[in-house]
Fold this protein.
Amino acid sequence: MYYTGIGARMTPAPVLKQMTTLASNLELSGFILRSGGANGADSAFEAGVSDPHNAKIYLPWKNFNNNPSALHDISVEAYEMAKHYHPNWYACSQAATKFHARNCYQVLGTDLKTPSQFILCWTPNAAVTGGTGQALRIALDHSIPIFNMADEHWNDQFDTWMTEYQTQPA
């Protein structure tokens, strides 16, 4: 069971703390984190995971932010997918295209075919914006539930979703 934990680098400190706690609790519930090693939300989620086998950290390049994750090779398919979802792909720098392509893995896994069960994130005003917006566009297109912690109702919605998810037959 995978979830994607992502968000803005400028995520407020109280939310970062909550993300770390959520990651710990989700790990105990059997979920594996997918994230991207960026400062802010990504790092907060990753900090909550105690066993490195329970986190898949997709990097735009080797040793990004001194992160030791081996998941840094980006396929042609990921670039093509990223181009499809980005509203202004040709305006992106080479580095930006790497970030956007790695976002595909955060949502759909290494094979680009295994969707996360849900997305936990924080974006300003709960908007589909910035680098996180790329992952959110992919999630929306794949009908993956998004719980944006900037939305005042996110926690109730997430609790309801988790209750329903946990009561489904295996």
